[in-house]
Amino acid sequence: MALESLDHCAIRTTRLEETRRFYVEALGLEVGPRPPLSLPGYWLYAGGRPIVHLMEIGEHYSADVFENAVHEARGPEGPGVDHLAFRVSGLSALRERLTGLGIPYREMSMRAADLHQVFAVDPNGVIAEMNFQASAEGV
What we know:
Elements: E1 2-13, H1 16-26, E2 30-32, E3 41-46, E4 49-56, H2 70-74, E5 80-89, H3 91-101, E6 106-110, E7 115-121, E8 127-133, H4 134-137
Parallel strand pairs: 1-4, 5-8
Antiparallel strand pairs: 1-5, 2-3, 3-4, 6-7, 7-8
């Protein structure tokens, strides 16, 4: 496994439109395409890449990828960092490493985006998302 870069950050918020305006107007990011997800939000792009994901919390988003209640897993309601995402190669090596260390993980594929993801939680409760190019990994 080789860690290559930070891919994007995700921000949970009860003020979705205000947060979007801040990143678009103050920082110059652009709203761009987003996969059809069950929760309201935006993907904000820089240089043609989605680097900030905004997610509305509350009734629309009640659990993280491990099915833990967001408020129980992250503390009081409000804005916050949900996860850190990294572009990675070497899927089988990552699986072996996490299994060997006894770290639970989940996987999810978005074939339309040629994306395979592995999620694990750090000791602080922050989700680490490892993103693989699915076709390059044979998944």
